Amino acid sequence: MSIQNIDVKYTAVATAENGRDGRVASDDGKLDVVVNPPKEMGGSGAGTNPEQLFAAGYSACFQGALGVVARREKADISGSTVTAKVGIGANGAGGFGLEVELIASIPNVDAATAKALLEKAHEVCPYSNATRGNIKVDLKVA
């Protein structure tokens, strides 16, 4: 798999202090959150965590990609939602890995059309393109 060359239109900048048990903030101040490991991983669970932030970003980005595809296909996705579930666990090689489940509810199309739209959005979404071939990503219609 080759590295994509892109024409960068925007660059997000965020800085973390104290890793998974600290704070993350964007350079423009619009994001400033406390991060803590979840209780399931031995943390306090008091703040958000990187997996929740990744799930938020992926679901929002995928919803945007779904909109691009829907416009091309002239499909009505009004009232649709995309939920991302991001799992983290040991990868068996001494490190950790992620897996993602994307669940879309698209009330104004039939199940076959919804599945086709999800597959096409998966080809368009930057998060999907960044993770393809690296982590398991399951697409589901709600």
UniProtKB/TrEMBL annotation:
Pfam families: OsmC (PF02566). InterPro entries: KH_dom-like_a/b (IPR015946), OHR (IPR019953), OsmC/Ohr_fam (IPR003718), OsmC/Ohrsf (IPR036102). It comes from the Bacteria. It comes from Streptomyces flavofungini. Belongs to the OsmC/Ohr family. SUPFAM superfamilies: OsmC-like. This is Organic hydroperoxide resistance protein.
